[in-house]
Write a structure and sequence with these properties.
Elements (H helix, E strand, L loop, with lengths): L1 E5 L21 E3 L1 H6 L2 E8 L10 E3 L3 E10 L5 E14 L6 E15 L14 E4 L3 E3 H12 L15 H7 L5 H8 L1
Parallel strand pairs: 7-8
Antiparallel strand pairs: 1-3, 2-9, 3-5, 4-6, 5-6, 6-7
């Protein structure tokens, strides 16, 4: 389910922009530059099962993520998209290997480009840029930003992990324990 509307504010091009922003089916934005210049807003939900690049990290593929995509222009009249994504992912803690709910909160501002590479791309303080074509696949953009936002190692907050697997192994008979007992006799 996807919803699109235009905001009251714009970047000076709202009257020139015509057409439909997004088809609702497949979560697409037609003319993303026009979408940004007219300060349009699109929102919806994407089932987690459709985020295939996350499947190897997920324990369960139940639920959905909710997104809000807002267009706008910065102080230099450059078009951008502000993407906010929220949801709960069911992942495995890399420390204790227990299943955990990971609260997903993504808030990204992405400057739009149609092939012209900005000069300040190597500056770490520069905004993130994406190259857009005539149609923007929102599902892919949301999935990209989720993948980039996840930490390399997902863990519970400090003190909330259950017993580490190494501790469990140490309590069981070590493979050499029988030999050690035999040598002591």
């Amino acid at each position: 389910m996807s919803e699109h509307h235009k905001d009251q504010s714009n970047c000076g091009l709202a009257d020139q922009v015509e057409g439909v922003f997004g088809s609702g089916l497949g979560h697409q934005i037609e003319d993303p530059m026009g979408f940004a210049h007219s300060a349009s807003v699109s929102s919806g939900q994407i089932p987690i099962s459709q985020l295939v690049r996350l499947s190897d990290r997920l324990v369960e593929q139940a639920g959905a993520v909710t997104y809000v995509l807002k267009g706008g222009c910065d102080s230099r009249a450059r078009p951008f998209l502000n993407l906010q994504v929220v949801g709960d992912l069911i992942l495995r803690c890399d420390f204790c290997l227990a299943v955990m709910s990971y609260p997903l909160i993504v808030d990204s501002q992405l400057m739009l480009s149609q092939g012209a590479v900005p000069e300040d791309l190597d500056d770490p303080d520069a905004p993130d840029w994406i190259e857009v074509e005539s149609v923007l696949a929102v599902n892919d953009l949301v999935e990209d930003e989720i993948v980039l936002s996840l930490p390399l190692s997902v863990r519970h907050k400090a003190g909330l992990c259950s017993e580490r697997p190494e501790a469990v192994v140490a309590e069981r008979d070590h493979p050499m324990a029988a030999l050690s007992k035999w040598l002591k006799q």
